[in-house]
């Protein structure tokens, strides 16, 4: 990826910002264009904090460049001008309205960001080949473990059918995969979808359980543990996610022609998960221990008095569990950061960020 121009949408987001920093740190003479609308779905100060970290990293690597544009990919004219101006070689689409429960009460934002926005990116990739131009070499985009929906076969494999989404969010992510496949077939655009499994770590999303639990415990509020604690999640540390994305970016699916003379779609989908689902109650206990260790919570904190077991919520699934054999086969990589190690880093960051 040396000397390449890389567009990252959702660049102020959790994964996007960490990816930008990793590329600036490790790829010589890389030009990164970041776009994000900085919406207020969660605390904007965390997004601004991430952007400052990227700017600092860019200043340490003067041979590379970082440009940030505050804009929304659901605005087609913005996306078209962006591609015309910068002509990216690689596009990593991480911009999306996240969250399963929020999709139940605010569906419009999911259609705008996850469908209209992704369509605009696909169209811009398609038009990048106009006039015989080399155009986009590889489109990498975020899918989600949510696409597995009502599947009961474990672990979740990319070979499984995923036709039973249980939330609008999941349905939009499945639509992304279908749209990418169609554009890969018709326009020969190399594209790879990545199904992320419960990403966590420092400066993560406050709407995620580990972050929300910490906020509530610190305020002395009760935390609700869904399905009476009988949930399992494949928690994946942010550094493992970023490493997987970086490997995939460098290996676009090969363009081939079928017997009919038409393109065989240069299309792939991978799971990126820890392949080690953790029981939600065990996860909460480890989180509590690490928050006490980091002195975010006092040593005598009455954890049991702040815990409430409640039924499953609409849109949730009882288990997520990634089969990462395809990722291991093609890239020799398997995420492996232990939950305690990841939560320890989060707790230490939380203490520093909120100046506790």
From TrEMBL:
UniProt entry tagged with the keyword Ribosomal protein: no
Record-linked Pfam families: Epimerase
Keywords on record: NAD
Origin superkingdom: Bacteria
Name of the protein: GDP-mannose 4,6-dehydratase
Domain NAD-dependent epimerase/dehydratase: 6-273
Database matches in SUPFAM superfamilies: NAD(P)-binding Rossmann-fold domains
Gene3D superfamilies on file: NAD(P)-binding Rossmann-like Domain, UDP-galactose 4-epimerase, domain 1
Signal peptide: none
């Amino acid at each position: 990826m040396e000397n390449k121009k890389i567009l990252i949408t959702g660049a102020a987001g959790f994964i996007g910002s960490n990816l930008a920093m990793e590329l600036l740190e490790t790829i010589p003479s890389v030009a990164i264009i970041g776009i994000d609308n900085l919406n207020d779905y969660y605390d904007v100060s965390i997004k601004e904090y991430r952007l400052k970290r990227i700017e600092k990293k860019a200043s340490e690597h003067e041979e590379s460049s970082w440009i940030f544009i505050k804009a929304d990919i659901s605005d087609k004219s913005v996306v078209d001008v962006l591609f015309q101006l910068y002509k990216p070689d690689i596009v990593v689409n991480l911009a999306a309205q996240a969250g399963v429960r929020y999709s139940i009460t605010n569906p419009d934002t999911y259609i705008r960001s996850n469908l209209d926005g992704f369509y605009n990116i696909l169209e811009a990739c398609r038009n990048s080949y106009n006039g015989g131009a080399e155009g986009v070499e590889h489109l990498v985009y975020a899918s989600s473990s949510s696409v597995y929906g009502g599947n009961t076969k474990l672990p979740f494999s990319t070979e499984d059918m995923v036709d039973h989404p249980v939330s609008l969010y999941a349905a939009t992510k499945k639509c992304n995969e279908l749209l990418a496949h169609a554009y890969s077939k018709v326009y020969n655009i190399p594209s790879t979808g990545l199904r992320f499994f419960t990403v966590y770590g420092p400066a993560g999303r406050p709407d995620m359980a580990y972050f929300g639990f910490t906020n509530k415990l610190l305020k002395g509020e009760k935390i609700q543990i869904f399905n009476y604690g009988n949930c399992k999640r494949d928690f994946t540390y942010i550094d493992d996610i970023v490493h997987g994305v970086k490997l995939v970016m460098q290996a676009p699916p090969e363009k081939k022609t079928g017997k009919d003379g038409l393109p065989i779609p240069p299309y792939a989908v991978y799971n990126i998960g820890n392949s080690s689902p953790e029981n939600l109650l065990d996860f909460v206990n480890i989180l509590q221990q690490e928050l006490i260790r980091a002195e975010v919570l006092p040593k005598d904190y009455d954890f049991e008095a702040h815990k409430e077991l409640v039924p499953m919520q609409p849109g949730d699934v009882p288990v997520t569990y990634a089969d990462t054999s395809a990722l291991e086969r093609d890239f020799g990589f398997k995420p492996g950061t232990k939950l305690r190690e990841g939560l320890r880093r989060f707790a230490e960051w939380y203490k520093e960020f909120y100046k506790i």
